[in-house]
Amino acid sequence: MFTVHRKEIEWGGRKLVMETGKIARQANGAVLVTYGDTTVLCTAVAAKAPKPGIDFFPLTVNYQEKAFAAGKIPGGFFKREGRPTEKETLVSRLIDRPIRPLFAEGFRNETQVVCTVLSHDLENDPDIVAMVGASAALTISGIPFLGPIGAARVGYKNGQYILNPTADEIADTDLNLVVAGTTEGVLMVESEAKELTEEVMLGAVMFGHSHFQPIIEAIIDLAELAAKEPWDLPASAYDRKALKARLRDTVGAAVEAAYTETVKQSRYEKVGAAKAKALETLAGEYEAQQIGVEFKELEADILRGAVLKTGRRIDGRDTKTVRPIVSEVGVLPRAHGSALFTRGETQALVVTTLGTSQDEQIIDALEGEYREHFMLHYNFPPYSVGEAGRMGSPGRREIGHGKLAWRAIHPLLPKKEDFPYTLRVVSEVTESNGSSSMATVCGTSLSLMDAGAPLLRPVAGIAMGLIKEDHAFAVLSDILGDEDHLGDMDFKVAGTEVGITALQMDIKITSITEEIMKIALGQAKDGRLHILDEMSKALTGARDGVNENAPRITVINIPKEKIRDVIGSGGKVIREIVEQTGAKIDIDDDGTVKVSAVDQKKAEAAIEWIKGIVAEPEMNVVYIGKVVKVVDFGAFVNFLGSRDGLVHISELSPQRVAKVSDVVSQGDAVKVKVIGFDDRGKVKLSMKQVDQVTGEDLTKKAE
């Protein structure tokens, strides 16, 4: 019934198995990939005919994690998987980026790649397994995919690179880098690093590239056994060279003139006018979609040719110059920290809010539930590019850009025990013309320092581009939006003056060489150091203390056995403390207590209350107390938190006392001394041994 084809290799010290022919047989391509005990089913399906009227390739990648893969039942009311998690969105992008450039030129059929995690051993991350499976499914599908690609994760510890580190290993390394590409070169890089040098990062990329070559060979071997007949690409419905020539004759000069305009909106108006003229002039000979495709090619030729011939770019810069930078902090009066970072026509308003552990994000992942105390949210409203558009929940791009900035900042954050705040950063991109994600990195660094978060060092980011024709190429620093869209590379590098903290690279051509990456990294370092110098004009380090509008968090430790005393039955005691003082209180299982309040006096009141509850009375120490009950044989005094003690009638006064109420009444403030404990641990107190005016111990005075 089944015709199963299987390929098995040893990779990174574990067995990797690819199998096809048994599951999802109606898909164009389906491969079940197992690495360790992590299994992902990857399928590829494309429509039989191209989607009419579009000038782009409609590719969708969906990575999805099933709770049963880790033996879990989903949380929430519905008990089933719902909208994609942040990780699912990020991995979908991770798979999309290296495969998208490899589909045949002109292929417009709607294509969907679905990667479903069926088993997770909690050691091997399914993302790499899914990338390998997606590549294999496309390669055997017959869909015009010019792969396969390989992918690998690289760690770095004690000067050594680690191939596909396990979950435990990656937590203890200085690098978490994912690289994907073809036999010829690298197509995609995504990483977080602990201030590593350019040489170490380049070495990691090349280490990963060399070590995923066996994956590419294994996929080719599987394809030789199981690949379907390749699809025939329909011939172009028009003569592309002839149309391009007509466009150059008709509007070439106008497009060239438009690309000398340095202001983005003015340039777009002139380009739009040229395109409208082309559509009007050539409407009887060609379809609008055909004219649109070749017009974009004409734009690319003009922009790229000018850079390679003259070394000058749209805005007049050379290939290495960074646009003018203005950094400002403290721009919002009530925010805990804020910064406005402007670089050319790209601007980000970045705001930091400090919270308590109650504000941490609870994440329910396949690996288990955990809490995140640093959140970075990136928003890209349509007005930032002068457009009117739909406003809604964040899309894949927003989530991806936010995570890139998160990775850039995360290695420099103070340890939680040193700065016990939950950090939420929001980047509102208010203008965009090239690399708003790197503007977010710069703005986040300034905003956190403005809030008083003690970053180890400031962090900056820069986006690099590439124009490559045959053997000629130019690496561009701080790219514009047009240079990103019409160029061959988007290479983002973030870090400090010491080293790189995040690196993300996407290649639109088949691959780039080690030489180009080396030049790009060196040029990016120069640009990053320049940006850091410009940022220092606003702020060189974290402010002393947190913003006056932020809560003050004080950490104290209490004995574990006293935790239930502070909480009280059903939480009665801790609720009373919170209601009476207005402070927030968090208690960890190890006895760590965090007390927070914007008004420091409220925090101090709560701390004194807690200390009173957990404190043990000491012999011969004088305390200030309050009479809470009067009885015939003495008075009960509350003197240490909620602790009461008995002043026997004989200890009320140096004179003989006939009636307790002659000396004290309920509610009186008195000074008492601990003179002993009875058999049940009850405290014995004395008033007569203490001067009720000065609080002086009279027995010591007598001595």
Query: Major beta sheet, specifics?
Result: 8 strands, antiparallel
Strand content: 25-35%
Structural class: alpha+beta
Helical content stands at: 25-40%
Main location: cytoplasm
EC number: 2.7.7.8
GO molecular function: 3'-5'-RNA exonuclease activity; magnesium ion binding; polyribonucleotide nucleotidyltransferase activity; RNA binding
Subcellular location: Cytoplasm
Structural topology:
Layout: E1 5-11, E2 14-20, E3 29-35, E4 38-46, E5 59-65, H1 86-99, E6 111-119, H2 126-141, E7 150-157, E8 160-163, H3 167-170, E9 175-181, E10 186-196, H4 198-211, H5 213-226, H6 240-258, H7 264-281, H8 288-310, E11 325-329, E12 337-343, E13 346-355, E14 361-365, E15 368-372, E16 374-379, H9 396-409, E17 422-431, H10 436-451, E18 460-469, E19 472-477, H11 481-486, E20 489-495, E21 500-507, H12 514-535, E22 552-557, H13 563-567, H14 572-581, E23 584-587, E24 592-597, H15 600-614, E25 622-631, E26 634-640, E27 643-648, E28 669-677, E29 683-686, H16 698-702
Parallel strand pairs: 5-6, 16-17, 27-29
Antiparallel strand pairs: 1-2, 2-3, 3-4, 4-6, 7-8, 7-9, 9-10, 10-21, 11-12, 12-13, 13-17, 14-15, 18-19, 18-20, 20-21, 22-24, 23-24, 25-26, 25-28, 26-27, 28-29
Helix pairs in contact: 1-2, 1-9, 2-5, 4-12, 6-7, 6-8, 9-10, 14-15
